[in-house]
Task: structure prediction
Amino acid sequence: MISARMNTLANLRGRIDRLEAHGDTHALDRMALGHAAADATLQGGLATGALHEVFAEGRQSGAATGFIAGLAGRVTVRRPLVWVRQDFSEVESGALSMNGVAELGLDPRRLVTVRAPDADNALRTAADALACDAVGAVVLEVWGEARQLDLVASRKLTLTAQASGVTCLVLRVAAEPQPSTAETRWIVRAAHSPPGAALMPAAAWTAWGAPMFDTQLVRNRHGALGQWIMEWKCDECLFSEPAAYPQPVAATPAHRPHQAAAFMADGFEYRERRAG
Result:
């Protein structure tokens, strides 16, 4: 009995050592996010079958939720997404909106939401969902400084994700980063979103802009760090660099430069006469 436990412990330690070895970076499958600079820093994209953490800065839970939904949309690949939420998250932030999920480009029919009464139950539920290889990704949303999400818990989630190939995305709100085995850690806040194109120019100010995130990669186990403004393209379901000119710009009429030059010349001549 004791020898069996020792063998199990030795195997577990061996798996952790291999998992934390630097050489494992090339063994990870990656999904491109679409943002060229972020993908380059991540050596091809977000690692799948791994643990990633997203922290909301201050009162930016909405922005962090939208960002992690985008990450989940990239890695699920038409498979179900399981979103485990602590009850207190729903009290503080409200329920997930299926209309909002659809507007982000995700299929609400593939979203399975689970409400857990506390962090312990949320952690167990997420671990069970991660063990199912039919799932595309699992989002574990926990509010506050949950002591249960320690280094040991993150290692268990990482090993389960690695074994099943299911990506684990941990959303932390009103919490500070702690040591973990996460492949990446992000701090997210909302970025300015210019108005989108409208059908009528007079109503342009009422059009919704594209979701825009100010993202900071503060942990990358196998690469550099970085900070980017990332735009989420709902129709293409990917991230990208913000457009320099989000609104269509009308072309200058062919006769405009000549008229403008003539006007400036007339004005200069007029000022000269006044000065004289």
About this structure: The first strand starts at residue 30 and ends at 31. Residues 80 and 135 are 5 Å apart (CA to CA).
